[in-house]
Every structure is written in structure tokens, then in C-alpha cells.
């Protein structure tokens, strides 16, 4: 895979890839295994929970109609906001991307196009409820930027980290060319992504930065976008004139490239910037171009003269966002220095409009105001006087922009930085603080998180809910307070890239963890029943899907929730997979309370089946039609057929001896084996049973008989009720203690915990040797003790005489 360098400053992470981004054989090999993850939210779905990467304003064509703002976030979603004078209401969430949404444009009056780090473009109806209408797959790496032609409503250009620039005819891309393609569409479309007539377009070819062409999956109905070939490195910015006859691009090569988007041919290359180009604008005619760069400079280019005509040094750090007035006379700029400036392109007069707490990522001019998006999850609307920007300059405080990058830096160091014109925004669309720190606790069901506001919360990932909100406390101190001496296999991983918890479940590792029903407080099941945490979690996640599926298949679910036998699903070959049936779990789909997910703030599933690529959807929006084309086969095997992959290391081997100096004969010979989740009190019961019936030895294979963790009758430690002929108050109550490394073990401790915290931490060995000893309860009468122990064969010498 390519090298990835992270540039971190002011809390911002900018991703740069080195070299060509074409998929190599190694990355293809890693993608073969289908995975599943789910994204948790503890609030309603009307707020973003990560930085806002892009904005687009859709003005109503009717004077009294509603205007809309579209925002795309690092949380992987887009939102539509209905705008009033001093408020904004979320009217739809567009959810289908599986990674950051990096840019969005409006093509025509009703089509929204977005691009993502998931390497796809997606189209949506601006006025829909958030259903994706098509997925376009052509890029080999993150898609970072888009550009649209205002008057040529079908033309959209896309660029990405792979050095690729594609020009799309959106109407042609989403419309089948002929009825003969219907069969191909049925095979290639992904029903997850949208309505019945939606298409998922997979790549016919990927054109790498070296101009080579690599064959890929056959594209549905044969549409191929125009490739503008020439970039050797990542593309960060695109712009197009109104008619769609001119396209400019920029990136890590530090040059502005100019293209004819109708043919993909290069027309010129403009040099002048000394660092990455991060933002581009074209005037409506295509004569003038504005560029913003990580060298802190804004440059104005005359494409007719093919040269830079002005440079504007107003920022002290990288320029990431540009927006111009309709007449292209003034430019608004923002970036890493947290500042929003307004500059007159003719007079070079500039002033500081406002400062932010976070770096500015995107700007969208809206009449006399401007929307500002940052690495925070909120969006601000600031005054801008976009129709007559000279009004702002009349307030005073302006300065003349220099033409050298160090001029502004020197002014800043001299302490003569300008004063912001505006102190407060008109109003703010609030977001939810992003999770910035997390820790998986030892019980492997709880995750401690801290968000950007400093709030610390405790999550139960098997239910997807916050069970404790501790407020603004020390994360490290709370982590220490919640420490438990337990050892459970790591069956999931977590990341917070989307600003929220994403829980990853990969086979076969996710099936390594088991717990007894008693430990999960499940009523109605034998306390010795083992539950596989991953399987129960899948049942909870797909409960709505199972219900819809039964309704679709016309089957009636029984009262106890018996699962469908699996015969109704399409047959799938499992010859190449090692599958076993979990015999300890009932073949049912009943969801236990410890695995019930919220329907108020349901998690979203991100996964991939045999066709169509990765997808994302809320668990409550699954309609029951999804099958192996949409879900990984191993997930369906688990939920529908109760089949789990073979699991290694589910047993723990150990030795059991009497304590040194004890006159009691050894109860077992050789090494014993039991489930690693077995509690020490089960070992106590085993010792008591063997003392009662010394002729019953361990099985020849070293496993306990009748089996620890199986259907062995529970006897509380010290109950002593294993001799017949005695009344309850007459029965002796000896107590058995289990020791390891001279430490008395808690009855609730598991064998895995003993090995992890008593053996490995003290001696470094993995060999578990347990020792037992008898502790006589002094409240027992002497007669009762003598009555029990003198009659026990383990206390007979070789001559058959009784001894203590």
C-alpha cells in the first residue's frame, strides 16, 4: 500500500499520499475479505458529529420559496438544512458513504453530487428523504474534490489522491443506455444504495497517474467518464467555468493545470505557488482563475496571458477555502490560520472579517452572508455584504495585501494584526462534539470515550448506548477507576475516524469471546449456557432485518423466536470455509436484553457483500431484501444458520494439585482442559465432587467429567450438601480454596484471568498450576466433621485405616 504521511497542526489532520495511488496487488488481496462494522450515535440524527468538509447553497427559483444549505461531514453523511432568516432546520440526512464526505456540488436544480474518501461519487435527489440514486466508481483512491458547470447542468468533474481527474456526464452516468443492459444492471446494481431504479456503477477501468490503464470490474451499462490525464500526484482542488468549457486543477505538484473538459486534453500549466494548491475558483467566463495554497498565498491568474497578475499575502498559514462575489471583484478566503478575510482583487485592499476557534475548511456565499465550515461539527453564518462588499470596507480597519508570503507573517510578529470586523455570527447550526479519545475496557463490552468538549462517557457496545455520562472529568483517572481484573479475548476493534464510535467485527477473531448467560444476567436460560458475544451482537443488529425478512417470505415467527432454517436463503458454497455449529447456543433469533440496540438512535451498518461495493445504512432502514449480495457470507451463516468459524484457543489447560503438605491423595492425573471462561468456583465444585466420589476421575483426554462449564450442578462454595442420610443442619460445610502462585483466587475469577493476571504478570509463564486446600468452617460441630471426613476414602491409608 502507499505511504501515508499525516500533517498535524492546530488539531487538523491533513492526509498526503506519496507516489501513484493505483491499486496494487497487495491492496486488492486485503480487500477480498468482507468485513462489517457499525457506527454508534448517542443523539438524534439532526446534527453532524465531525468536521464539515463542504457546503452548497440551493436557492429557490421562487421569490418566497425555501432556500437550502447542504453540508457534507467527516462523519460520512450529508444534511439538508431548510433556511430561515435566523435559523436552520435539518430536513434530511443523506447516508450512504462509508467514509468522510469531502466535497459536494449541485448539478442542475435537483441533483446533488458528493464525493468521499470511500473512492466513490454518489448522486442524490436534492428534495428526497436522503435516498442515494446512484454510486459512481472510477477512482482508485480518496476522491477529494468536485467541480460543476452552472449552465451545463450535466457536467461534473472529480479529482482525488490517485492523481486522477474525471469529467462526468451525470445524466449519462446514471441512465441505462438500452434495455439490453437490464440484465447487467440486475447483476451489478446494489439495492442497498437506493430505490429500485438506482444503479451502482463499478469501474470499467482506472486510469492511473502514469497514464496506464488497468482492467477492473465491468461497468454497468458501459458508461466511462472522460479522463483528464497528466497529474502525477494528488489532486486537491478543481474549478469549472459556467459553460463547462474550461477546467482547472491543482494539488501537491504546486502547479495549476488547465484542461478542456470536453476532451480531457491539457491546454496549459501555471507555475508560481511553492506549496500544495488547496482551493481554486474560475470566473464565469473562464478568463480569470484564483488559487489558494499551503504557501499562505492567494494568486490571481489571467488564463489568456497564461501568467499570474496579482499575489495577495493576507494569511499567515495555509489557504484552504475561497469564495468570490458574483462579479469576481472580491474574494473571501479562509484556512489554517483560523481567519476569514475579504480582499478587493483590484485595489488589493483587505480586511479581517472574523476569526474562528477552528481552521476553516469551506466557504459558501449566500446573498449578503457567508456560511463558514470548519473542523468543528457546527456551521456559522456570518455577515458578508456579498452584493456590495464595499460596505464592509467603509467600517475601516483594512490593510493593503502584500505580494510576498513573509510580509503578512512579519506584520503578525510585529503585533499589528488587524482587528476583526465581526465578533459574533448571525447564527450557528450546532453540531455534536466529536469523539477524540477512546479506550476499550477489560470486560470487552464497555468503551470509555472523551469528546472534543471534554465530556467523558461510558458506552456498552453490545447495545450501542451510553450507560454513564461522567461529564468533564479526567479521562485517565476514570479509566483507572473502571479497571477490572478480567481477561476476555479482543473480539472487536474501535475507531473514531467518523467522530463517533465505529465498532469493527472481523472473522474469525470476533467469535473468540464467550460469556455465561449468568454473567450477562439473562433470565430464562440455564446459567451454564455459553453465549458467543459476536453472534448475539449480530442478532441484535439484524433484528429489524430478520423481522422484515420473515414478513417478506411470508413465514410466521414463533413465540420464542425460532430462526428460519436457512433453507430459504440462496445456497452459497462454504466448501472453502471452516464452519462449525455452535452447539451451546439454541438455534433461535431471540435478542436478549444485553444485546438490544436503540431504535431511537439506531446504529448504522457499514459492510460489503459479493456485489456492489461497501454500503452504509441504519439498521432500522433495512427492508429484508438484502442477501449475500449485500452482507458478508459469514455474517449470514452466523445469524441464519448458527454456523460459526472454527475458533482456536477457546480452551485453557491447567494442572490441579492439593496444596503442599496435604495428606489428601491427588484427585486427577495429568493436564486438565476447560473453557477459558470457566470460573474458579466451578473448579471448587469439581474438587468437592471428586472428594465425594473419588472413583470418578477425569476423562482420558484430560477434560472434566461431567465437564466444567457444561451441565454440572452448581453448588455454592461450602454448601457441603453431597452426603445422603444427613439432615440439612447436620451436613458439614467444608470450604475449598483454590490457590495459584501462593495467591487465594476469587471464586468469580476465570481461568483466562488467572493466566493473564496471576501467572503471566508474576512469573511470565503460561503454564497454569492450581492448588486446592480445605478450610474447615469453625461453626461446624466436631461430630459432623468427624462423621464426614472419617468416612471419606481419600483419607484412608494403604491399610484401609482412617486418618486425618
Automatic annotation (TrEMBL):
SMART domains for this protein: WD40
InterPro entries in the record: WD40/YVTN_repeat-like_dom_sf, WD40_PAC1, WD40_repeat_CS, WD40_repeat_dom_sf, WD40_rpt, WDR48, WDR48/Bun107
Name of the featured protein: Uncharacterized protein
Taxonomy of the source species: Eukaryota, Viridiplantae, Streptophyta, Embryophyta, Tracheophyta
WD repeats: 136-178, 228-269, 270-311
Keywords, in A-Z order: Repeat, WD repeat
Domain of life: Eukaryota
Pfam family, one: WD40
Record-stated family: Belongs to the WD repeat WDR48 family.
Organism: Hibiscus sabdariffa (roselle)
Amino acid at each position: 500500500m502507499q505511504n501515508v504521511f499525516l500533517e498535524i497542526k492546530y488539531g487538523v489532520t491533513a492526509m498526503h499520499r506519496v507516489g501513484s495511488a493505483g491499486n496494487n496487488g497487495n491492496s486488492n488481496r486485503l480487500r477480498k475479505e468482507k468485513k462489517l462494522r457499525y457506527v454508534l450515535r448517542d443523539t438524534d440524527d439532526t446534527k453532524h458529529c465531525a468536521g464539515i468538509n463542504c457546503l452548497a447553497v440551493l436557492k429557490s427559483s421562487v421569490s418566497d420559496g425555501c432556500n437550502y444549505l447542504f453540508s457534507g461531514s467527516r462523519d460520512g453523511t450529508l444534511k439538508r438544512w431548510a433556511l430561515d432568516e435566523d435559523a436552520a432546520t435539518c430536513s434530511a440526512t443523506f447516508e450512504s458513504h462509508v467514509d468522510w464526505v469531502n466535497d459536494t456540488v449541485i448539478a442542475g436544480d435537483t441533483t446533488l453530487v458528493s464525493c468521499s474518501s470511500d473512492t466513490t461519487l454518489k448522486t442524490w435527489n436534492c428534495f428526497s428523504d436522503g435516498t442515494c440514486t446512484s454510486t459512481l466508481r472510477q477512482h482508485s483512491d480518496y476522491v477529494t474534490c468536485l467541480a460543476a458547470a452552472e449552465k451545463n447542468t450535466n457536467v461534473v468533474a472529480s479529482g482525488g489522491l490517485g492523481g486522477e481527474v474525471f469529467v462526468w456526464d451525470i445524466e449519462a452516468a446514471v441512465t441505462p443506455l438500452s434495455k439490453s443492459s437490464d440484465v447487467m444492471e440486475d447483476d451489478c446494481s446494489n439495492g442497498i444504495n437506493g430505490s429500485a431504479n438506482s444503479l451502482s456503477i463499478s469501474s470499467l477501468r482506472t486510469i492511473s497517474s502514469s497514464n496506464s490503464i488497468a482492467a477492473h470490474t465491468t461497468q454497468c451499462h458501459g458508461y466511462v467518464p472522460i479522463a483528464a490525464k497528466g497529474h502525477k500526484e494528488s489532486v486537491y482542488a478543481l474549478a469549472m467555468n459556467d459553460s463547462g468549457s474550461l477546467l482547472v486543477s491543482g494539488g501537491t505538484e504546486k502547479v495549476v493545470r488547465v484542461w478542456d473538459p470536453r476532451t480531457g486534453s491539457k491546454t496549459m500549466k501555471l507555475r508560481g505557488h511553492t506549496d500544495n494548491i488547496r482551493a481554486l475558483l474560475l470566473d464565469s467566463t473562464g478568463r480569470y482563475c484564483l488559487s489558494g495554497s499551503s504557501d499562505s498565498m492567494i494568486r490571481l491568474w489571467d488564463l489568456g496571458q497564461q501568467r499570474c497578475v496579482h499575489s495577495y499575502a493576507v494569511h499567515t498559514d495555509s489557504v484552504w477555502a475561497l469564495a468570490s462575489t458574483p462579479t469576481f471583484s472580491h474574494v473571501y478566503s479562509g484556512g489554517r490560520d483560523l481567519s476569514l478575510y475579504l480582499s478587493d482583487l483590484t485595489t488589493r485592499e483587505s480586511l479581517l472579517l472574523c476569526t474562528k476557534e477552528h481552521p476553516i475548511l469551506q466557504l459558501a456565499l449566500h446573498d449578503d452572508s457567508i456560511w463558514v465550515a470548519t473542523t468543528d461539527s457546527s456551521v456559522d453564518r456570518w455577515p458578508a455584504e456579498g452584493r456590495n462588499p464595499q460596505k464592509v470596507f467603509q467600517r475601516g480597519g483594512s490593510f493593503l495585501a502584500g505580494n510576498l508570503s513573509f510580509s503578512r507573517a512579519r506584520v503578525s510578529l510585529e503585533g499589528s494584526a488587524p482587528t476583526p470586523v465581526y465578533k459574533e455570527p448571525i447564527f450557528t447550526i450546532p453540531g455534536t462534539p466529536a469523539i477524540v479519545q477512546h479506550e476499550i475496557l477489560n470486560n470487552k463490552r464497555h468503551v470509555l470515550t472523551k469528546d472534543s468538549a471534554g465530556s467523558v462517557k461510558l458506552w456498552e457496545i453490545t447495545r450501542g448506548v451510553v450507560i454513564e455520562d461522567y461529564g468533564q472529568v479526567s479521562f485517565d483517572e476514570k479509566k483507572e477507576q473502571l479497571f477490572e481484573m478480567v481477561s476476555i479475548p479482543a473480539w472487536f476493534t474501535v475507531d473514531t475516524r467518523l467522530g463517533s464510535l465505529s465498532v469493527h467485527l472481523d472473522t474469525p477473531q470476533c467469535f473468540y469471546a464467550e460469556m455465561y448467560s449468568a454473567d450477562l444476567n439473562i433470565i430464562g436460560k440455564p446459567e451454564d449456557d455459553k453465549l458467543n458475544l459476536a453472534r448475539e451482537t449480530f442478532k441484535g443488529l439484524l433484528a429489524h432485518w430478520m423481522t422484515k425478512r420473515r414478513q417478506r417470505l411470508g413465514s410466521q415467527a414463533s413465540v420464542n423466536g425460532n430462526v428460519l432454517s436457512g433453507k430459504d436463503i440462496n445456497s452459497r458454497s462454504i466448501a472453502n470455509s471452516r464452519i462449525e455449529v455452535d452447539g451451546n447456543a439454541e438455534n433461535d433469533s431471540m435478542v436478549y436484553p444485553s444485546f438490544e440496540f436503540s431504535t431511537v438512535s439506531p446504529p448504522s451498518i457499514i459492510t460489503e457483500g459479493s456485489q456492489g461495493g461497501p454500503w452504509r445504512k441504519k439498521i432500522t432502514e433495512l427492508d429484508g431484501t438484502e442477501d449475500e449480495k449485500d452482507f458478508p457470507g459469514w455474517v449470514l451463516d452466523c445469524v441464519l444458520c448458527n454456523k460459526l468459524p472454527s475458533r482456536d484457543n477457546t480452551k485453557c489447560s491447567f494442572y490441579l494439585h492439593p496444596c503442599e503438605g496435604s495428606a489428601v491423595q491427588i484427585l486427577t492425573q495429568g493436564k486438565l482442559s476447560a473453557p477459558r471462561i470457566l470460573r474458579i468456583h466451578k473448579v471448587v465444585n469439581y474438587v468437592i465432587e471428586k472428594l465425594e466420589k473419588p472413583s470418578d476421575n477425569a476423562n482420558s483426554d484430560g477434560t472434566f467429567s461431567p465437564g466444567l462449564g457444561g451441565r454440572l450442578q452448581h453448588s455454592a462454595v461450602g454448601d457441603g450438601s453431597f452426603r445422603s442420610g444427613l439432615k440439612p443442619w447436620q451436613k458439614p460445610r467444608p470450604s475449598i480454596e483454590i490457590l495459584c502462585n501462593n495467591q487465594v483466587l476469587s471464586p468469580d475469577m476465570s481461568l483466562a484471568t488467572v493466566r493473564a493476571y496471576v501467572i503471566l504478570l508474576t512469573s511470565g509463564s503460561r503454564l497454569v498450576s492450581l492448588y486446592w486446600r480445605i478450610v474447615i468452617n469453625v461453626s461446624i460441630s466436631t461430630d459432623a466433621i468427624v462423621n464426614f471426613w472419617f468416612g471419606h476414602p481419600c483419607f484412608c491409608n494403604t491399610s484401609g485405616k482412617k486418618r486425618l
